[in-house]
Amino acid sequence: MIRIVCLAIGYCFGMFQTAFIYGKMHGIDIREKGSGNAGTTNALRVLGKKAGLVVFLGDALKAVFAMVLVHFLFESSHPEMGALLRIYAGAGVVLGHNFPFYMGFKGGKGIAATGGISLGMAWQCMIAVASTFFILFFLTHYVSLGSLCMYVVFVIFLVVAGQQGFFAMPQPYLTEMYIIAVLLALMAFIRHRGNISRLIHGNERKTYLTKKNKED
């Protein structure tokens, strides 16, 4: 039951659709512009760098806030499963972000939210994840490539750190945490299947921070 509660808490936080709200404040429905995705990259392309930054911070912080709330609500009474409960909350945020019921289950892809999850799990995880994303992004200008590789590093970090005792949880809880991380990664790959196809065929759109974005 506590897992479901944490998932529900995360889902509620995840439904705070930063890109959608920001777009409405500027007279547009972000889902009807650009790629139609209610996330950071589309906000950046459609509304500019300021919008991209606001959306990124909003989507990342909602994951952090959900995980901090779960920490204060449950970790003192369940210290042996603290990290597991936090990742349930984080998974709920991604689900709420990707599939908000009040928007017809049409949201984003959960990448910025996952960045927030990485910070909620451990600052070291956030450094590994963020470094992977930004290095690949600035080398290739493919947001999708950085995002997918970021997820791979996220899973690897949790497994390696978990097996070294970093999260101080029994093995069954660690294994459950790994499964959730893998499921989140699989969902990200599925939601990026169009991007993966374009990457393979060499026609994925690039994104630039220092000049006007254009079709490549």
What does this 3D model show about the protein?
The structure is a single chain. By secondary structure, this protein is mostly helical. It contains ten helices and no strands. The protein has helices spanning 2-14, 18-25, 40-47, 49-74, 82-98, 111-121, 123-140, 143-163, 171-191, 193-201.
Give a short synopsis of this structure.
By secondary structure, this protein is an all-alpha fold. It is built from 10 helices and no strands.
Give descriptors for this structure.
216 residues, mainly alpha, 10 helices, 0% strand, globular
Topology, please?
Elements: H1 2-14, H2 18-25, H3 40-47, H4 49-74, H5 82-98, H6 111-121, H7 123-140, H8 143-163, H9 171-191, H10 193-201
Helix pairs in contact: 1-4, 1-5, 3-4, 4-5, 4-6, 5-6, 5-9, 6-7, 7-8, 8-9
Structural domain tally: 1
**Biggest sheet details:** none
SSE-based structural type: mainly alpha
Mean pLDDT: 91
Oligomer: single chain
- Report the helical percentage: over 70%
Binned strand content: under 5%
Per DSSP, the total helix count is 10
Q: What order do the helices and strands follow? A: HHHHHHHHHH
> What overall form do the CA principal axes indicate?
globular
Total DSSP E strands: 0
Beginning-to-end CA distance, first to last residue: 49 Å
pLDDT < 50 runs, ≥5 residues: none
- Rg computed from alpha carbons, rounded to a whole number of angstroms: 17 Å
